[in-house]
Design goal:
With 174 residues, the chain is of the alpha/beta class. The chain is 48% helix and 22% strand. The strands form 2 sheets. Strands 1, 2, 3, 4, 5 and 6 form a 6-stranded mixed sheet that branches. The chain starts with a strand and ends with a helix. Bound molecules: flavin mononucleotide.
């Protein structure tokens, strides 16, 4: 099986996870802007990565545009965000709101805690967070939205790396 990592982020958290993953698995990586249907044709295992902004996966539109091609492949998706990994209701909701029914059933997804450094955000993103924090009822989430967070850690990739390796091993045996 030939694999590739295709990702889209904004401030470097998704980019960092994509590079750690490429390093661990020895796979090539591409930013989503450079990933065309012709690129996809050359691979049968696709690892997609995306961060989340105001409930939207940055890569959602690209997945939608390439859903037909992706349906023929083994696809993993890592989602880099502020949603804690144990908040499964919010995770399900995010998948449901961003991915078509068929593709969300066939993709294996993983949530990874990301990074948000307030001083590095554009004025627009800072404003969006400020407004979000204003309306947020949960005090923990409110604090995170006001102060930012940095949960980036290579170890968060362990489960995804194990799942990809198991798939590669399975197909090598067939
Ligand atoms: C304006 C803004 C909106 C965000 N909206 C969400 C959100 O709706 N859900 C979530 O879980 N995380 C949200 N986040 C957190 C980002 O997904 C997180 O910081 C992520 O690590 C960013 O990764 P990137 O640097 O690769 O873009 C938001 C962050 C910002 C700055």
């Amino acid at each position: 099986m030939k694999g590739i990592i295709i990702y889209q982020g904004r401030y470097g958290a998704t980019d960092q996870y994509a590079h750690w993953l490429a390093d661990a698995l020895g796979l090539p990586l591409l930013r989503v802007e450079s990933a065309t249907p012709a690129t996809l044709a050359g691979y049968d295992l696709i690892i997609l990565g995306s961060s989340v902004y105001v409930g939207k996966l940055l890569i959602a539109k690209w997945i939608d545009q390439n859903a037909g091609l992706l349906a023929e492949k083994k696809v993993f998706l890592f989602i880099v965000c502020g949603t804690t990994s144990d908040d499964s209701i919010q995770q399900q909701q995010l998948i449901h709101n961003n991915l078509g029914r068929a593709i969300s059933r066939s993709i294996t997804w993983f949530f990874l805690p990301g990074r948000c450094i307030i001083s590095k955000l554009s004025w627009k993103d800072r404003l969006v967070l400020k407004i979000g924090a204003w309306f947020e009822k949960n005090p923990k989430k409110k604090r995170v939205m006001k102060q930012g967070f940095d949960e980036l850690d290579r170890r968060h990739l362990d489960k995804l790396i194990a799942a990809v390796r198991a798939t590669l091993k399975e197909t090598a045996v067939c």
